[in-house]
């Protein structure tokens, strides 16, 4: 008869659980441009390998192993996974084993066995289970699952940002190295020009004005070098932190270099006609979506507080006043109970908790929509930059070629007495500036490719 009652109670609980609150998983509608795919594309996990620099590949490999921001993000994933385990455990019965032994002497003036001594020994197994009638625990578990997904997507976002920063800092370092070489060569050529002008001045062939102008140009180039050396040191430090290099290793061996800035392979630009839905694979959008779904589940969990909570408890074990008889069949004991609680008045606590959950849902929805908006703006900007950056590099290269010719012609005119030394100085300045700008343009071209891969949530290439 007791077994029938138990089965009946569980059946009723199961039927009631069908009435549990289910969160709305419909995502906010965001209008995105429907762009037809003009070329097939496939994801490239190690997109940085397209630059064909073994040292860059090695630095990124070190970063993925040793970077502390990535280690922090991974620890947060582990924490979220543990939280999910804690919350999910409430969906299952709790089992425990307990033992109790005690002796009590009653007062002679007491009403129960006056003056006697009584011992009691127990060994029992205990079980308890909250029947999740309205989905309170289930929705909390769903929210915890989404929180775990959000932390995993956050880790992917940290990884994507990390690899992009390593690549861009490396390109910047190689650009600074190239500019330092150009500056050293310029200092050398201007030193030779200054020495020649000084000899001519001492020989009475030229004026002191030419000497001082040559000296000023030499000093200008020399003044550029310390700034470049400081920038190189700062970039090496930033790159060292990104890859997790120890301070000792940085001081003793510095940061490894590979190809020069003009030797690095420039990957082909990704076509601008890719399907807009590809952007939804970005880690930040996926993270925002998971956060929104978690907030939706917590609303339903909070609503369940308005309704009754049913808990079942059971006990099965042994009890005896004589320890020697504890394990006999006659010492068996059991108990079964159900507990139903329902709030009647809580001073508006439940209503406020629901309002709080709804407010957080609106926040999560705003974050989700903003993530999509930022993704499209970001991608549009880098697509435009990638489209025009090649033209800039070509223009800078043309300028370098032209200024090299200009300097040669100006020098010939000056040596033959057809022009002043100012023409030579102007040509020198233009050449030095255009050479530095060309290196900057080459770096920006590589950076633009990295920014595009990052904007799309990872590397892409044509099939």
Automatic annotation (TrEMBL):
Cellular compartments annotated: Cell membrane
Domain of life assignment: Bacteria
GO molecular function, one term: efflux transmembrane transporter activity
Keyword vocabulary terms for this entry: Lipoprotein, Membrane, Palmitate, Signal, Transmembrane, Transmembrane beta strand
An annotated GO cellular component: plasma membrane
InterPro entries: MdtP/NodT-like, OMP_efflux
UniProt topology in membrane: Lipid-anchor
A Pfam family per the record: OEP
Principal subcellular localisation of the protein: membrane
PANTHER family: OUTER MEMBRANE CATION EFFLUX PROTEIN, OUTER MEMBRANE PROTEIN-RELATED
Record-stated family: Belongs to the outer membrane factor (OMF) (TC 1.B.17) family.
Name assigned to this protein: Efflux transporter outer membrane subunit
Species the sequence originates in: Chitinibacter bivalviorum
């Amino acid at each position: 008869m007791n077994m029938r009652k138990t089965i009946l109670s569980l059946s009723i609980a199961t039927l009631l659980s069908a009435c549990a609150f289910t969160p709305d998983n419909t995502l906010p509608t965001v209008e995105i441009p429907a762009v037809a795919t003009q070329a097939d594309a496939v994801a490239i996990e190690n997109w940085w390998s397209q630059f064909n620099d073994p040292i860059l590949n090695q630095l990124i490999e070190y970063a993925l192993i040793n970077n502390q921001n990535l280690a922090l993000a991974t620890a947060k994933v582990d924490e979220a996974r543990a939280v999910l385990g804690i919350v999910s455990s409430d969906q299952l019965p709790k089992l425990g084993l307990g033992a109790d032994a005690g002796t009590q002497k009653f007062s002679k003036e007491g009403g129960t066995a006056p003056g006697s001594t009584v011992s009691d020994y127990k060994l029992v197994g205990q079980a308890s289970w909250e029947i999740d009638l309205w989905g309170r625990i289930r929705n909390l578990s769903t929210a915890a699952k989404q929180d775990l997904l959000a932390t995993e997507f956050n880790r992917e976002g940290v990884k994507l940002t990390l690899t992009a920063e390593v690549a861009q800092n490396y390109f910047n370092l190689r650009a600074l190295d190239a500019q330092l070489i150009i500056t050293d060569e310029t200092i050398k050529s201007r030193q030779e020009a200054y020495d020649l002008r000084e000899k001519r001045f001492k020989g009475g062939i030229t004026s002191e004005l030419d000497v001082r102008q040559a000296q000023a140009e030499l000093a200008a180039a020399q003044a550029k070098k310390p700034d470049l050396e400081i920038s190189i040191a700062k970039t090496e430090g930033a790159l060292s932190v990104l890859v997790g290099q120890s301070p000792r290793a940085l001081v003793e061996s510095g940061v490894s270099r590979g190809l020069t800035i003009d030797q690095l392979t420039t990957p082909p630009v990704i076509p601008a006609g890719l399907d807009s839905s590809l952007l939804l694979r970005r880690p930040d959008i996926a993270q925002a979506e998971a956060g929104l779904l978690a907030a939706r589940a917590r609303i339903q969990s909070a609503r369940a507080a308005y309704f009754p909570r049913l808990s079942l408890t059971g006990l099965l074990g042994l009890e005896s006043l004589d320890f020697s008889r504890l394990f006999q069949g006659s010492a068996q004991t059991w108990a079964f109970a159900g507990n139903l609680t329902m709030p009647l008045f809580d001073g508006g606590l439940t209503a406020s908790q629901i309002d709080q959950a709804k407010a957080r849902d609106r926040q999560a929805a705003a974050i989700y929509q903003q993530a999509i908006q930022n993704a499209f703006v970001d991608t549009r900007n880098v697509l435009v930059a990638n489209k025009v950056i090649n033209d800039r590099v070509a223009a800078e290269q043309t300028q370098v070629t032209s200024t090299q010719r200009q300097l040669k012609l100006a020098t010939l005119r000056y040596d033959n007495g057809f022009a002043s030394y100012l023409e030579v100085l102007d040509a020198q300045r233009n050449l030095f500036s255009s050479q530095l700008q060309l290196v900057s343009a080459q770096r920006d071209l590589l950076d633009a490719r990295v920014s595009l891969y990052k904007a799309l949530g990872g590397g892409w290439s044509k099939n």
